[in-house]
UniProtKB/TrEMBL annotation:
InterPro entries reported for this sequence: Peptidase_M14 (IPR000834)
Assigned protein family: Belongs to the peptidase M14 family.
Organism annotation: Shewanella psychropiezotolerans
Pfam families: Peptidase_M14 (PF00246)
Peptidase M14 domain ranges (all copies): 86-371
Entry-linked SMART domains: Zn_pept
Molecular function terms, GO-annotated: carboxypeptidase activity
Transmembrane segments: none
Listed name of the protein: Carboxypeptidase
Length: 625
């Protein structure tokens, strides 16, 4: 789940098919008939400990309830056995899954690696051939869908939905789903956070009864870690993506924020991103099929929903253009079509789990039918190599508005906070023609270099690029080259730690240089499938560059100095030897602040002397045209 304050954002589908689904019929006050909730009075729920402080709930029933097994059935999941309101622990989850695996040759289980607390991050491979390795799976030629649950472990809908779906594939009538597609399923990604479970976690969410913690045991947010890859968990996942080569990646979350009618919302990259062919497939082929399946089963699907102002829906929604720190932004950058599911936190757990089941089943069907088109889109994006790459984007109002299926609310003054607070009343309401604001106009962009060069001493940077799967070679001997290098200035460090790092932004000026690169220098060709990812990780003004994440912070440290007693005679000699320098100094003295600062005046000469560190604030990653 992506949390921001009033500027929270939404990935809004803008195709004709999606728009028609969203707009609905304004004459039917918020389109409730298809959900089986028409005519029902919202009421205060009493299933969960936090129900009494949440907005009223609307009782829900849909066709997807037929997917549930009775509590006495031998193969009912722990979720089904315990009243559809709980989710099993780590040990209970894999005990049940191990029992299911023992019934079939279609399921295998592999560990992606250990968590910081020593738990295995398990992945199940479901294929009609019983593949147990990436090589064997690739032999069947079918597209693979990687489904990941519990990246924020309290948002665990995907785990229980996936367990039910695997059960029905193995023992029910859903085995045909594997005829044309493979399923890679990670029931719990943040395994340590999952076991920090309590009924007091996730206060804004309606179930399950006990929920895991948002961050890892190191208190890091995995859905901010895709680009920097600091966590063991993320490093294991990136290695799995590189080895298993999925064709579609699904990241299951539960959202916070405002109240509305949609129960299953999902989104992906934008048309303006680095994977336009994948976007076209997702928008024109995938979304219509998934929304149709969800609607037919009594759910209300929609794009990702994040309001500009949670207290005033009329201000509209934002079109989210995610950066590579997030799963869907990362997928766009590495040309892996990635779906971010955000189920609505205020919907009952049963409704959210069943909606996720329907979406996952429909995904396997759609990917199986559309395998050729999907693989073709991915290939187009991987070998597109745009001449210019956009690093940052500007906000503009979009041409299309949104008829939003919301919930009525009013504002009331709080005696507790002294502020006005929003009160949702549970009554469906259509908010027509809401404006949509999106980051879709290029701001900072760069020309595509043919390659980057990284000196061998930057071992942590090189290791992270290797974890991402970016191809690289090394110079076997010192080499003189004409390259480009950024000179950085005006660095601004974040005042507080963010995700375990001191982040920094700086102005960057590109200059031509002649340099001798040492042996062992890494060369990264940008004309490779992950070339665009390399660019966004290595361009200093990219918001998720390794520079901005703090991997190069030592270059901002001044390590050599000159004493005043030495710089005074040095400056006098420099002025005597260079009349032009005297003119430049006289011009500088016209700045009253500079003229009144003795240290600045001496530093001015030191910076122009041969004693000055010529690598200070020089970005050590060089570019080749």
């Amino acid at each position: 789940m992506r949390l921001t304050p009033l500027s929270t954002t939404i990935l809004l589908a803008l195709s004709i098919a999606s728009t028609s689904c969203l707009a609905g019929d304004a004459a039917t006050n918020a389109n409730t008939a298809s959900t089986g909730t028409a005519g029902l009075t919202p009421k205060q729920a009493n299933t969960y400990i936090n129900d009494r402080i949440l907005p009223p709930a609307i009782e829900w029933h849909g066709k997807s309830e037929a997917l549930l097994l009775g509590v006495d059935d031998e193969w009912a999941t722990p979720f089904e056995k315990d009243g559809l309101k709980t989710s099993p622990s780590y040990d209970e989850t894999f005990a049940w899954l191990d029992k299911l695996i023992a019934q079939t040759d279609k399921l295998k289980k592999v560990s992606l690696g250990k968590s910081p607390q020593g738990r295995d991050i398990w992945m199940l491979i479901a294929s009609s051939e019983g593949a147990y390795s990436p090589e064997v799976l690739a032999e069947n030629g079918k597209p693979s869908v990687l489904v990941q649950a519990g990246i924020h472990s309290g948002e665990i809908d995907g785990k229980d939905a996936g367990m039910m779906l695997l059960r029905d594939i193995v023992l029910g009538n859903k085995g045909v789903l594997l005829d044309n597609a493979n399923l890679l399923f990670v029931p719990i990604f943040s395994v340590d956070g999952h076991e920090r479970s309590s009924q007091y976690n996730r206060v804004n969410q309606r179930g399950p009864v006990n929920m895991g913690w948002r961050t890892t045991s190191n208190n890091l947010n995995l859905n901010r870690d895709y680009a920097k890859a600091d966590t063991l968990e993320m490093q294991h996942m990136l290695q799995a993506i590189n080895e298993w080569q999925p064709d579609l990646y699904i990241d299951v979350h539960v959202t916070d924020g405002i109240d509305y009618q949609y129960d299953v919302t999902f989104g992906y990259n934008l048309a303006q991103g680095l994977s336009p062919a994948s976007y076209a497939w997702l928008e024109k082929s995938y979304r219509p099929a998934i929304e149709s399946a969800l609607t037919s089963q009594g759910h209300i699907p929609g794009p990702l929903i994040f309001a500009i102002d949670n207290t005033d829906i009329t201000k509209g929604m934002s079109l989210w253009n995610p950066s590579p720190r997030y799963s869907n932004g990362y997928g766009d950058t590495r040309h892996l079509p990635t779906i971010l599911i955000e189920n609505h936190s205020l919907k009952p757990y049963k409704q959210r789990v069943l909606g996720t089941y329907v979406m996952l089943e429909a995904t396997l069907k759609t990917v199986g039918k559309q395998a050729t088109k999907l693989k073709s889109a991915i290939k187009q994006d991987k070998f597109n190599y745009p001449a210019r790459v956009t690093l940052t984007w500007k906000e503009v109002q979009q041409k299309r508005s949104w008829d939003f299926k919301g919930i009525e609310y009013h504002m009331e003054e709080s005696p507790i906070s002294g502020n006005e607070i929003v009160r949702w009343n549970g009554v469906p309401k259509l908010y027509p023609n809401l404006p949509v604001i999106g980051d879709t106009v290029p701001d900072i962009s760069v020309t595509r270099p043919s390659a980057y060069y990284i000196p061998p001493q930057w071992t942590e940077v090189i290791e992270r690029l290797h974890i991402h799967g970016i191809r690289m070679t090394r110079l076997i001997q010192p080499t003189e080259m004409k390259l480009q290098q950024y000179e950085l200035s005006s660095p601004k460090f974040r005042s507080k730690d963010y995700e375990g790092r001191q982040t920094v932004k700086a102005d960057a000026k590109l200059e031509s240089v002649e340099t001798k690169l040492p042996s062992g220098t890494v060369r990264i060709d940008t004309h490779q499938p992950l070339g665009d990812l390399a660019i966004l990780l290595l361009e200093p003004q990219s918001p998720d560059s390794l520079l901005q994440w703090g991997f190069f912070n030592p270059i901002f440290t001044r390590t050599e100095y000159i004493e005043n007693y030495a710089v005074e005679p040095l400056a006098a000699q420099m002025l005597k030897d260079d009349p032009k320098l005297q003119l430049a100094f006289d011009k500088a003295l016209k700045d009253e602040e500079f003229a009144a600062d003795p240290k600045a005046r001496l530093r001015w000469f030191y910076q122009r002397s041969p004693y000055y560190d010529d690598q200070y604030q020089k970005y050590p990653v060089l570019r080749e045209k």
